């Protein structure tokens, strides 16, 4: 039976990054991807901030569809305000980006198989047997270290005995069209709210040049009998009436990974498999890249030390949360919980408070704590509102965390 020092399951950004870091550190690693090509199926609006992308990559025009200079925020009634920051982010061409990340793993020396569908794990004397089908035929390899990068429907973590279940309210049900419509403006991303169109979530328009763009919604805890598709229909009919639709995709984005153990003896899970996407936006590319890279680096060190125990691999968890700023993630998670309890009247109230603070503003930096502090000191009514919605302990938490 073929033996590898590490096996990574899933060739999205998280898995390719993990395989790359392992290979760069001289580890014999196998990357398994069930699709026929890396980047073949991408379920994503493809937005990423400059700050996050440039942690690992130069913004290469090959995989960038649009450079973002502006963001527009809509109220449930269609009023809006606009903020600016030149080059704040990008809308990627993820089919190309994902393939590019996979290429960097191959160049570093990772072995990779496509049409390789992971099926199950067995553990014998501290070694994993990784079962998969390759072009439909059953295969098995041995390894002391498995990294699960198999996306939101992850099976690796479960098979390894990690407890990765999250409550239903921690899932964004995200679906979108790739469409063309004059309201999609190159260089500007738009965000929409309103229970009528984006139930307990938000809508987006992310441009990809020439009025083409990803237009979709993320919704949570839908009312009985409703479907996400019906909301998407309503949303597009209203804001993008007459759009020509060229594609559709849907999936879930799980969040709340800060409350989970994302590592165990000889195993780590990364990216969506570890439920690490940013809680409010559901943006998961940055966490996928960072968690993959950190897991790859820690895995390589642990292999060299001959210690793949759970306590050794905890360094993955600790370093990830240091880089991604656990306090900021927790704040976002709590704000999302409050957001889920808001209706359109609440959203109108919040919008009315935020518009005068931000409309036409040129942002100097993107810093969650700085802006939260600014908002609550300039609009203290929002603290009273938060107390009404979530209780006084939530406001104490906000005051402590934001520093007001
Ligand atoms: C509609 C929508 C819009 C989104 N928009 C954004 C956005 O604008 N910005 C952002 O940052 N995030 C966005 N996200 C979230 C983002 O797409 C994910 O967080 C990100 O792709 C996670 O990367 P990953 O590598 O963990 O998982 P994935 O990208 O899902 O990769 C997992 C890989 O594992 C493979 N795999 C799965 N099972 C197996 C198996 N059994 N064997 C072998 N391979 C397997 C899959 O084929 C896939 O290639 C969006 C998500 C959705 C659904």
| Structural class by SSE content | alpha/beta
CATH class of the largest domain: Alpha Beta
Low-confidence stretches: none
Q: Please indicate the percent range of residues in DSSP E strands (runs of 2 or more).
A: 25-35%
- Rg from alpha-carbon coordinates: 22 Å
Taken in chain order, the helices and strands follow as EHEEHEEHEEEEEHEEEEHEEEHHHHHHH
Principal-axes geometry comes out as globular
Bound molecules: flavin-adenine dinucleotide
Distance between the termini: 60 Å
The beta-strand count equals 17
- Describe the sheet with the most strands: 8 strands, mixed
| Average pLDDT score | 97
Please estimate the helix content.
25-40%
CATH architectural name of the largest domain: 3-Layer(bba) Sandwich
Strand order of the largest sheet: 3-5-4-12-13-14-11-15
CATH-defined fold name of the largest domain: FAD/NAD(P)-binding domain
Count, helices:
12
Walk me through what this model shows.
Strands 3-5-4-12-13-14-11-15 form an eight-stranded mixed β-sheet. Strands 6-2-1-10-17-16 form a six-stranded mixed β-sheet, with helices on one face. The protein contains twelve helices and 17 strands. With 404 residues, the protein is an alpha/beta fold. It folds into three domains: 6-42 and 95-166 and 256-324, FAD/NAD(P)-binding domain, CATH 3.50.50.60; 68-86 and 169-254, D-Amino Acid Oxidase, Chain A, domain 2 (2-Layer Sandwich), CATH 3.30.9.10; 328-402, no CATH class. α6 runs antiparallel to α7 (310-324). The relative contact order is 0.15. The protein binds flavin-adenine dinucleotide.
């Amino acid at each position: 039976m073929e033996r590898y020092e590490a096996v990574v399951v899933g060739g999205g950004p998280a898995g390719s990054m993990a395989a790359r870091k392992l290979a760069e550190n001289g580890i014999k690693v196998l990357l398994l991807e069930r699709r026929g090509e890396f980047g073949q199926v991408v379920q994503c609006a493809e937005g990423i901030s400059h700050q996050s992308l440039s942690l690992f990559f130069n913004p290469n025009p090959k995989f960038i569809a649009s450079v973002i200079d502006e963001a527009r925020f809509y109220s449930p009634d269609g009023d809006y305000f606009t903020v600016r920051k030149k080059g704040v982010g990008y809308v990627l061409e993820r089919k190309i980006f994902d393939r590019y990340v996979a290429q960097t793993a191959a160049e570093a020396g990772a072995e990779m198989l496509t049409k390789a569908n992971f099926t199950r794990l067995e553990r014998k004397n501290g070694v994993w047997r990784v079962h998969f089908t390759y072009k439909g035929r059953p295969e098995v390899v041995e390894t002391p270290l498995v990294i699960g990068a198999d996306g939101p429907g992850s099976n690796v973590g479960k098979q390894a005995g990690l407890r990765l279940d999250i409550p239903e309210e921690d899932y964004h049900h995200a679906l979108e069209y790739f469409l063309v419509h004059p309201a999609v403006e190159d260089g500007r991303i738009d965000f929409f709210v309103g229970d009528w169109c984006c139930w307990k979530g938000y809508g987006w328009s992310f441009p990809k040049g020439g009025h083409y763009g990803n237009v979709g919604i993320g919704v949570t805890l839908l009312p009985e009998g409703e479907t996400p598709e019906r909301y998407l229909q309503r949303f597009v009919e209203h804001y993008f009436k007459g759009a020509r639709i060229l594609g559709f995709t849907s999936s879930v984005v799980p969040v709340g990974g800060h409350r989970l153990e994302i590592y165990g003896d000889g195993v780590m899970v990364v990216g969506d498999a570890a439920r690490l996407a940013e809680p409010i936006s559901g943006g998961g590319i940055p966490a996928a890249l960072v968690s993959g890279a950190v897991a790859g680096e820690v895995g390589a060190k642990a292999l060299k030390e001959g210690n793949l125990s759970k306590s050794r691999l905890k360094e993955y968890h600790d370093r990830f949360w240091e880089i991604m700023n656990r306090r900021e993630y927790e704040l976002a998670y709590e704000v999302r919980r409050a957001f889920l309890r808001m209706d359109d009247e609440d959203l109108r109230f919040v919008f009315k408070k935020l518009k005068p603070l931000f409309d036409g503003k040129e942002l100097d930096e993107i810093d969650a704590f700085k802006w939260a502090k600014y908002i609550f000191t300039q609009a203290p009514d929002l603290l009273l509102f938060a107390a009404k919605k979530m209780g006084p302990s939530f406001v104490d938490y906000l005051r402590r965390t934001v520093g007001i």
